[in-house]
Structure formats: C-alpha cells, structure tokens
Amino acid sequence: MRIRLLALAALALSSTAPAFAADLTYQEPAPPAVDQVPSSFSWSGFYLGAQGGYSWNQGSYLGSNENIDSGAAGIHAGYNFQSGNIVYGIENDFNYNFDNKKEANLEWDASGRARIGYALDRTLVFATAGVAAAGGKVNVAGVGKKDDILIGWTAGGGLEHAITDNITVRGEYRYSDFGKKDFGSNIGDFSATQNKVLLGASYKF
Questions:
Q1: Residues 176/191, Cβ–Cβ less than 8 Å
Q2: What is the per-residue DSSP string for 98-151?
Q3: With pLDDT > 70 as the criterion, what percentage of the chain qualifies?
Q4: Residues 6 or more apart from 169 whose CB is under 8 A from it?
C-alpha cells in the first residue's frame, strides 16, 4: 500500500514539472532606449534682411582727396546652399548714405557678391567678394555739378549667428573700390573707395 502511494505521488510530481519549468523560462531584458540627437541647424534657403552702419569713404577729384564719410542703412537678400559645414551662396545689397552735404559724396552703394563660409552649427564665419556700384556726386561752386554711377569691386567678411530657426544677426566688414569715372572737362576724373562696417538681421524662409 505504501509503495503504491509513493508511486502515485511521484507520478503527480512528474506531471507538474513541465509547467513549473515553463514558469522559470528566462526573459531577455529590452534594450535600453537610445536618446535622439537633434539635427544641426541648416543654413540653406532664401533670406531677406536689413542692415545699418558707417562708411569711411575717400573721394578723389580736382586733384585732391577728401573724406566723405557717412552713416548708412540698407537692405539685403540672398540664397545659401550647405554641404556639411561648408555654406556658400549669393547675396545682393543696397545702402543709402545719409551725409550728402559735402561737395562730393556717395549717395548710395550696392553690390552683388558670392559668399562662402564655415558653419559651427548656428554660427557662420564667412568671406564675401563681388561687384560693387555707387552713386557718385560732385557739386563744386563755380566749377560744376555732376553725378554718375561708379563700378568696381568689393571684398570682406563677417560673422553671422542664428538666434532662432528663422532669424539671424550679423556683423560684417567690407572694403570697396568703386573705380574711376570721367565727370567732364571741368571736374575731371572722380574715384572713390570705401571701408564699411555693418550690423544687420535677416529672416530665413
């Protein structure tokens, strides 16, 4: 009788062993979540903005040189392309010069330039160069009055920073040589150069 009971008990334990073993199956832990790294700022696209600053202008006419410095304000527009950290594009600007009371002055200046720079995420260090134009004017009592467009070149560089995804601010320096133009027999050749410092802001579309 005792042997029969022991056999029945052993049979019962053997039938429950697979279920118990299933409960002990090893579960591999889920892999840890990977933090998403935000993408870097993109400089690509069209932008439009405004700037203001000061121009140290030098005019040459009637055999003499004259400082024709002036405050300036204007607008700019351009388009950037980006490849890795390299940013390149084109930009045009137009500036009005405020001090027009001298015998000679540059009433306005404008440029069409290429830009190339290196982006450190939201900060761009850039160089720029291209064609420049200016509205030169000479008005000398007893000699004559003449205004005409001077064509030359400009080059410089600056620093730009994106404070939001759409708004950037910049500081820029440029040197321009507007060349020489014949203003007539009474005045002769008129030429002008310019050192300009500008602060500006742009909206990137």
A1: no
A2: ----SSEEEEEEEEEEEEEEEEETTEEEEEEEEEEEEEEEEEETTTEEEEEEEE
A3: 80
A4: 160, 161, 163, 199, 200, 201, 202
> pLDDT tens digit string along 34-45?
454 444 899 999
User: What is residue 186's three-state secondary structure?
Assistant: coil
The DSSP secondary-structure symbol of 166 reads: S
Range of the domain at 74: 45-204
> Is 16 among the domain residues?
no
Assign residue 100 the CATH number of its domain. Answer: 2.40.160.20
pTM: 0.78
Q: What is the mean pLDDT of the chain?
A: 86
Q: What's the domain count of the chain?
A: 1
Is 191 within the bounds of a domain? yes
